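Hi Q.,

Before the meeting this afternoon, I wanted you to have the C2E prediction in hand. No need to reply - just skim if you have a minute. The sequence and ligand are here:
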Amino acid sequence: MTARQRKKRLKLKKARVWGPFILFLLMSVFLTAIIAISVSAFIQYALDSKLSGIVDTGTKMVTAIDEGGSKDALSAYSANYFITDKDNSITELVGVNTCETKDGDTLRSSEHGNLKYKLYSDTESESILDETDEDLGLNLRSLFGYIESYLKDHDSINFFTTNISTETNGVSPLIDIPVWISMDIGDSGRTLYYKGTVSININYVFSMIKIIAAIAIIYLIVFILMLINLIVNVIAQKKMRRRLLTDEITGGGNRLFFFYKSGQILCKRSNAKKRYAVLSIEFVKYLNYCVCHSIAEGDALLRGINSAILSQLGKKDIVSRFDSADFAVLINVADENDLNTRTDKLLSLLEDVSDDHKLDFHIGIYMIGAEQDKSSGGIKRKYIDPEECYNNARTARNVLLDNDSSGKAMFDEKLVEEQKWIDAVLEHQQAALEREEFAVYYQPKYDPRTNTLRGAEALIRWQSPELGFITPYRFIPIFEKNGFITEIDHYMLAHAARDQKRWLDQGKSCVPISVNISRAHFIEEDLAEQIRDIIDAEGAPHELIELELTESAFFDDKKMMIETISRLKSYGFTISMDDFGSGYSSLNSLKDMPLDVLKLDAEFFRGESQDGRDRIVVAEAIRLARSLNMRTVAEGVEVKEQVDFLAEQECDMIQGYYYAKPMPRDEFEERLS
Ligand code: C2E
Ligand code: CA
Ligand code: CA
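Predicted structure with the ligand bound:
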């Protein structure tokens, strides 16, 4: 998995709704702070300007005292004041002394140029002023206390509707809050204390409260909207994620869920010591099942399979439907034995998942060992790619493709190599045919009694510029599977016939050349005519061409086979049964087929002779062939004793390394002359 894909998958995990919300919160805090700072600066300014009037009065009183002004003149400035001497004793008192002069009760000591004053609370009224770090603050609780009692005294005034002013309705909009101020009287050591009034206009307070409330309400609304948006988004994302990861048919996980979840489990550090197996489970004949039943029943079956697998899983194991009837499973296993028992159990459970059928399943298995345990497939957790793991399990399952019945297969690195090879062959086959990269090799057949050349078999070799020199065992089985083998048969027939024609024209004494005809070819009704036309196109005489049919081909459509063989014979071709005795019981075919040559399989001449039994079989096979008017060719003969024995038994020909290996055309040509 690339880093990009990993990131993409991780994104699934993260909700993307918190970003704007957090941004909004931060902005709110920032704005609130700015508003708070501005409001406090404004209050500070307002209080200072309110105080300046009172301080002004004090200055005037001090001047008047200095100038020896009368009590009456002074009380015009303030109804309550007193003067203390050097010893702090009151020398003169007018009105009532309600000044809070004890230590610590000073609200403020201020020194602005020449002007010095101290501020005190009034003992009989609550102070709305607080001192904070030399600055005056507003004590909101007591301010609201004042407002409350003001409103009590003025029934007609309403926060929401009244717009009072002294001019219009005669009600004072001012709330008076008493404060005491002290000032030194020159250098005499005497001090003047007097009571002043801070007046706050109720209209300003109302406006202030309204503005702040409006801002707060706007904030609250935006906040609630954001919150609703957040909740809606979270729900939508959750829904979307569920839909994204859920399989529409089974209701369980889908392929994305499998990769996402298994990635989380497999790459987790704390799981590094655990062993896991990734399974690819396929219901083999799902399409047939749907054809015979219905898509709805097919879906129901898939749900049944999903539940059956689920019932066998541990708490942290997972299953997902990958596609069609292919399920991906991740299980935590103790060891290989555990894996075997669990997969066997799963397989037998799945086979019985339908009430009226026994179903067949293929399980491909890929083991992931503990991280340290490299010998048993352990790899570093961070390098684990769930996609690759699943693909490996699928590759293992691919081995079972041709099996109709249930089975399981373990992944092996060789399987990948094999698949890559098959792909390479498929990629190059057509071009190879067009560029004539297939070479015809000839393996001579000798009469063991006279040691003379009696025939040859044309065998294919692939000289590929891309893939190198390739022997038929590596590509013929692939061509047989994909049908390309029929092209090869035509190619070989044409080339063998062309060579024969050339040799004849050169005056060489030609021997019959046998060409292999694959089993796949026999489904074509006009095969005999196709072969005849190919040979005729090259101009080679029919009697110099022999056709080798493998023994297994005789089991397909017997009637058609007999027909084709009869027609081929009528055109003058010789027919031989290849690989006789290689595994299929073919005595029956011998009975029915009008064959000319019997090729004894190389297996007869392999291994140690066990008390001569194989010799008896070979001798009897030659005898049987002769009784049926057939010639015999012994294949794969490598040692002299076998040659002598076969000569003794009057075997007609030997094709084996003892005489010669398959050889290029030019080399074979020399043997002809
Ligand atoms: P086959 O038709 O049974 O061919 C005989 C194989 O046995 C040849 O292998 C040959 O090289 C090998 N052989 C012969 N004598 C000896 C011996 O003494 N010792 C040993 N160890 N081997 C011996 P080759 O050429 O590799 O071909 C393998 C198979 O590939 C053939 O088996 C045939 O089934 C298929 N094949 C080869 N060429 C063609 C072709 O042109 N068309 C088709 N349809 N199949 C072909
Ligand atoms: Ca052959
Ligand atoms: Ca053979």
